[in-house]
Amino acid sequence: MLLREGLRSLLERFEFEIAASVGDAEALASAVAQHGPDLVVTDIRMPPGFRDEGLRAAVQLRATRPELPIVVLSHYVETRYVGTLLDFNDGRAIGYLLKERVADVEEFVASLRRVAAGGTAVDPAVVKRLVQRQHDPLDQLTRRERDVLVLMAEGHSNSRVARELTVSEAAIGKHIGSIMAKLDLAHEDVEANRRVKAVLAFLRA
Q1: What pLDDT is stored for residue 79 in this prediction?
Q2: Are strands 120-122 and 94-98 parallel, antiparallel or unpaired?
Q3: Ranges for the HTH luxR-type domain (predicted)?
Q4: What angle (nearest 5°) sits at the alpha carbon of residue 135, between those of residues 131 and 136?
Q5: In the chain, fewer beta carbons within 10 Å around the N or the C end?
Protein backbone atom coordinates (compact mmCIF):
# COMPACT_ATOMS: atom_id res chain seq x y z
CA MET A 1 0.00 0.00 0.00
CA LEU A 2 2.87 2.38 0.82
CA LEU A 3 4.46 1.80 -2.60
CA ARG A 4 1.12 2.23 -4.34
CA GLU A 5 0.32 5.49 -2.61
CA GLY A 6 3.88 6.71 -3.10
CA LEU A 7 3.64 6.04 -6.83
CA ARG A 8 0.29 7.78 -7.00
CA SER A 9 1.71 10.89 -5.35
CA LEU A 10 4.81 10.81 -7.53
CA LEU A 11 2.93 10.46 -10.79
CA GLU A 12 0.46 13.20 -9.90
CA ARG A 13 3.43 15.51 -9.39
CA PHE A 14 4.41 14.76 -13.00
CA GLU A 15 0.88 15.53 -14.23
CA PHE A 16 -0.32 11.97 -14.74
CA GLU A 17 -4.05 11.68 -14.16
CA ILE A 18 -4.68 8.66 -11.90
CA ALA A 19 -7.87 6.87 -12.91
CA ALA A 20 -7.70 4.29 -10.11
CA SER A 21 -5.38 2.90 -7.43
CA VAL A 22 -6.11 -0.70 -6.44
CA GLY A 23 -4.57 -3.46 -4.34
CA ASP A 24 -5.27 -6.78 -6.08
CA ALA A 25 -5.55 -8.33 -9.53
CA GLU A 26 -9.34 -8.58 -9.53
CA ALA A 27 -9.71 -4.90 -8.69
CA LEU A 28 -7.14 -4.09 -11.37
CA ALA A 29 -9.18 -5.86 -14.06
CA SER A 30 -12.35 -4.09 -12.92
CA ALA A 31 -10.65 -0.68 -12.90
CA VAL A 32 -9.29 -1.16 -16.43
CA ALA A 33 -12.75 -2.21 -17.67
CA GLN A 34 -14.35 0.81 -15.99
CA HIS A 35 -11.84 3.53 -16.86
CA GLY A 36 -10.08 2.36 -20.05
CA PRO A 37 -6.73 3.86 -18.98
CA ASP A 38 -3.90 4.91 -21.29
CA LEU A 39 -1.35 3.15 -19.05
CA VAL A 40 -1.37 0.45 -16.37
CA VAL A 41 1.38 0.16 -13.73
CA THR A 42 1.24 -3.08 -11.74
CA ASP A 43 3.33 -5.15 -9.38
CA ILE A 44 4.17 -8.71 -10.45
CA ARG A 45 3.26 -9.98 -6.97
CA MET A 46 -0.19 -9.08 -5.64
CA PRO A 47 -2.66 -10.42 -3.05
CA PRO A 48 -3.74 -12.97 -2.13
CA GLY A 49 -0.74 -15.19 -2.86
CA PHE A 50 1.95 -12.59 -3.60
CA ARG A 51 3.39 -14.81 -6.34
CA ASP A 52 2.65 -13.79 -9.94
CA GLU A 53 -0.94 -12.51 -9.69
CA GLY A 54 -0.03 -9.13 -11.16
CA LEU A 55 1.77 -10.71 -14.09
CA ARG A 56 -1.15 -13.00 -14.85
CA ALA A 57 -3.48 -10.01 -14.64
CA ALA A 58 -1.27 -8.10 -17.08
CA VAL A 59 -1.27 -11.03 -19.51
CA GLN A 60 -5.06 -11.30 -19.31
CA LEU A 61 -5.44 -7.57 -19.90
CA ARG A 62 -3.18 -7.75 -22.97
CA ALA A 63 -5.15 -10.74 -24.27
CA THR A 64 -8.32 -8.64 -24.30
CA ARG A 65 -6.63 -5.31 -25.16
CA PRO A 66 -3.37 -6.15 -27.01
CA GLU A 67 -2.38 -2.49 -27.37
CA LEU A 68 -2.92 -1.54 -23.72
CA PRO A 69 0.37 -0.06 -22.37
CA ILE A 70 1.46 -1.91 -19.22
CA VAL A 71 4.48 -1.45 -16.96
CA VAL A 72 5.17 -4.31 -14.57
CA LEU A 73 7.29 -3.71 -11.47
CA SER A 74 9.31 -6.40 -9.69
CA HIS A 75 11.70 -6.67 -6.74
CA TYR A 76 13.83 -9.25 -8.54
CA VAL A 77 15.45 -9.94 -11.91
CA GLU A 78 13.26 -12.72 -13.28
CA THR A 79 14.01 -13.08 -16.97
CA ARG A 80 11.37 -15.76 -17.54
CA TYR A 81 8.69 -13.08 -17.22
CA VAL A 82 10.07 -11.04 -20.09
CA GLY A 83 8.98 -13.49 -22.80
CA THR A 84 5.47 -13.70 -21.34
CA LEU A 85 5.11 -9.94 -21.43
CA LEU A 86 6.34 -9.73 -25.01
CA ASP A 87 3.91 -12.30 -26.40
CA PHE A 88 1.22 -9.74 -27.25
CA ASN A 89 1.34 -6.92 -29.80
CA ASP A 90 4.94 -7.70 -30.83
CA GLY A 91 6.21 -6.49 -27.47
CA ARG A 92 5.04 -2.93 -28.01
CA ALA A 93 3.84 -0.78 -25.11
CA ILE A 94 5.37 -3.04 -22.44
CA GLY A 95 7.68 -2.22 -19.56
CA TYR A 96 9.45 -4.49 -17.08
CA LEU A 97 11.27 -2.52 -14.39
CA LEU A 98 12.79 -3.23 -11.00
CA LYS A 99 11.19 -1.27 -8.18
CA GLU A 100 14.53 0.27 -7.28
CA ARG A 101 14.34 2.25 -10.54
CA VAL A 102 11.57 4.35 -9.03
CA ALA A 103 14.30 6.12 -7.02
CA ASP A 104 15.62 7.62 -10.28
CA VAL A 105 12.43 9.62 -10.68
CA GLU A 106 13.09 11.31 -14.01
CA GLU A 107 14.25 8.10 -15.71
CA PHE A 108 11.32 6.16 -14.24
CA VAL A 109 8.80 8.73 -15.46
CA ALA A 110 10.49 8.79 -18.88
CA SER A 111 10.14 4.98 -19.05
CA LEU A 112 6.42 5.22 -18.24
CA ARG A 113 5.91 7.86 -20.93
CA ARG A 114 7.84 5.75 -23.44
CA VAL A 115 5.64 2.71 -22.78
CA ALA A 116 2.46 4.83 -22.88
CA ALA A 117 3.56 6.04 -26.32
CA GLY A 118 3.91 2.44 -27.55
CA GLY A 119 7.58 1.82 -26.78
CA THR A 120 9.32 -0.87 -24.75
CA ALA A 121 11.22 -0.35 -21.49
CA VAL A 122 13.16 -3.26 -20.00
CA ASP A 123 15.20 -2.76 -16.84
CA PRO A 124 18.96 -2.58 -17.48
CA ALA A 125 19.55 -5.29 -14.86
CA VAL A 126 17.26 -7.65 -16.78
CA VAL A 127 18.98 -6.81 -20.05
CA LYS A 128 22.40 -7.52 -18.51
CA ARG A 129 21.20 -10.83 -17.10
CA LEU A 130 20.02 -11.83 -20.57
CA VAL A 131 23.37 -10.85 -22.05
CA GLN A 132 25.19 -13.04 -19.55
CA ARG A 133 23.29 -16.19 -20.43
CA GLN A 134 25.63 -18.94 -21.53
CA HIS A 135 24.24 -19.85 -24.94
CA ASP A 136 23.89 -16.58 -26.79
CA PRO A 137 22.24 -16.94 -30.21
CA LEU A 138 23.35 -13.44 -31.18
CA ASP A 139 27.07 -14.25 -31.26
CA GLN A 140 27.26 -13.02 -34.83
CA LEU A 141 27.16 -9.45 -33.48
CA THR A 142 30.37 -7.63 -32.64
CA ARG A 143 30.96 -6.44 -29.09
CA ARG A 144 30.10 -2.85 -30.05
CA GLU A 145 26.94 -3.96 -31.88
CA ARG A 146 25.93 -5.88 -28.77
CA ASP A 147 26.50 -2.76 -26.65
CA VAL A 148 24.28 -0.79 -29.03
CA LEU A 149 21.55 -3.45 -28.92
CA VAL A 150 21.62 -3.53 -25.11
CA LEU A 151 21.02 0.22 -25.00
CA MET A 152 18.30 -0.08 -27.64
CA ALA A 153 16.63 -2.75 -25.47
CA GLU A 154 16.67 -0.30 -22.57
CA GLY A 155 14.65 2.05 -24.78
CA HIS A 156 17.25 4.70 -25.59
CA SER A 157 17.25 6.82 -28.74
CA ASN A 158 20.16 6.87 -31.21
CA SER A 159 21.42 10.14 -29.75
CA ARG A 160 21.34 8.75 -26.19
CA VAL A 161 23.11 5.56 -27.33
CA ALA A 162 25.78 7.71 -28.99
CA ARG A 163 26.29 9.67 -25.76
CA GLU A 164 26.48 6.52 -23.65
CA LEU A 165 29.11 4.95 -25.92
CA THR A 166 30.93 8.23 -26.62
CA VAL A 167 30.69 7.96 -30.40
CA SER A 168 28.94 9.93 -33.10
CA GLU A 169 25.28 9.44 -33.89
CA ALA A 170 26.29 8.57 -37.46
CA ALA A 171 28.44 5.72 -36.13
CA ILE A 172 25.48 4.43 -34.12
CA GLY A 173 23.36 4.53 -37.26
CA LYS A 174 25.92 2.34 -39.04
CA HIS A 175 26.03 -0.11 -36.14
CA ILE A 176 22.24 -0.35 -36.13
CA GLY A 177 22.24 -0.94 -39.88
CA SER A 178 24.69 -3.79 -39.38
CA ILE A 179 22.60 -5.25 -36.56
CA MET A 180 19.49 -5.17 -38.75
CA ALA A 181 21.33 -6.89 -41.59
CA LYS A 182 22.72 -9.62 -39.34
CA LEU A 183 19.29 -10.22 -37.78
CA ASP A 184 17.70 -10.29 -41.24
CA LEU A 185 15.57 -7.23 -40.52
CA ALA A 186 16.89 -4.98 -43.29
CA HIS A 187 13.80 -5.73 -45.39
CA GLU A 188 11.48 -4.03 -42.87
CA ASP A 189 10.12 -0.79 -44.31
CA VAL A 190 9.47 1.06 -41.05
CA GLU A 191 12.42 1.97 -38.83
CA ALA A 192 10.34 1.62 -35.65
CA ASN A 193 9.37 -1.92 -36.65
CA ARG A 194 13.02 -2.82 -37.24
CA ARG A 195 14.06 -1.52 -33.83
CA VAL A 196 11.28 -3.33 -32.00
CA LYS A 197 11.97 -6.62 -33.77
CA ALA A 198 15.72 -6.35 -33.14
CA VAL A 199 15.07 -5.80 -29.43
CA LEU A 200 12.57 -8.69 -29.36
CA ALA A 201 15.08 -11.01 -31.05
CA PHE A 202 17.59 -10.08 -28.37
CA LEU A 203 15.22 -10.42 -25.40
CA ARG A 204 13.71 -13.70 -26.57
CA ALA A 205 17.05 -15.31 -27.38
Answers
A1: 67
A2: parallel
A3: 134-200
A4: 45
A5: N
